[in-house]
Prior knowledge:
Blueprint: E1 7-10, H1 24-30, H2 37-44, E2 50-55, H3 68-77, E3 83-90, E4 96-106, E5 109-112, H4 119-125, E6 130-134, H5 138-146, E7 153-155, E8 162-164, E9 170-182, E10 185-197, H6 207-227, H7 234-253, H8 256-271
Antiparallel strand pairs: 1-2, 2-9, 3-4, 3-6, 4-5, 5-10, 6-9, 7-8, 9-10
Helix pairs in contact: 5-6, 5-8, 6-7, 6-8
Amino acid sequence: xxxxxxxxxxxxxxxxxxxxxxxxxxxxxxxxxxxxxxxxxxxxxxxxxxxxxxxxxxxxxxxxxxxxxxxxxxxxxxxxxxxxxxxxxxxxxxxxxxxxxxxxxxxxxxxxxxxxxxxxxxxxxxxxxxxxxxxxxxxxxxxxxxxxxxxxxxxxxxxxxxxxxxxxxxxxxxxxxxxxxxxxxxxxxxxxxxxxxxxxxxxxxxxxxxxxxxxxxxxxxxxxxxxxxxxxxxxxxxxxxxxxxxxxxxxxxxxxxxxxxxxxxxxxxxxxxxxxxx
Length: 278
């Protein structure tokens, strides 16, 4: 069974995103818990966003009954607005790729926001299914962002999906339903096919663990904009400052394995030409 979903309708391209107009992406993030796909589409009218494609969901082989208990757990897990997840897609050769990414809960699914020139987005536009993994473990995020050679992929529950062989808390398997480009990011609306628990290991709240995830989030932003030639954007200095504080706290409070990852973050920044941060 082919896991890829052909694009049903290629819609006309609108103008490129311009500054000074209300951000549909920001609006989605601000009202995501009550935002339906219909309302999202309605707000696109007259905006500067570009509706790239609406994905066909008329694939009866892939339609599964999602356990309502687990859907309830998913809604509960994403009740605090913007959450961090690990997103796994596959390329045309069915090779999996993992990336750390934010996710929002919608009434009719989920929304993720990949950079337009990222491998994740290229895979999604080519029809890749999407697996989302939720975890509090900073070391799993560290492997995804900085040590991908350590990742081990295994098949998900649905054909064509991959997950990590790691101690994550929850797996979600979904397919793209709608893609909207705005600026350097895309909003990808996902239709959920399956939700199931992982083998996550519980641990008490750790500031160092949380701050390491923060540092990795800022690293992905800094890495993207510097590699894309945007060294002069106003946000960059603030992100670097936040990352620097996060690293200092990990060094002060973290275990040796958390500190090791923090030092790898610093090395990556140095390779980007931002060596004074750490």
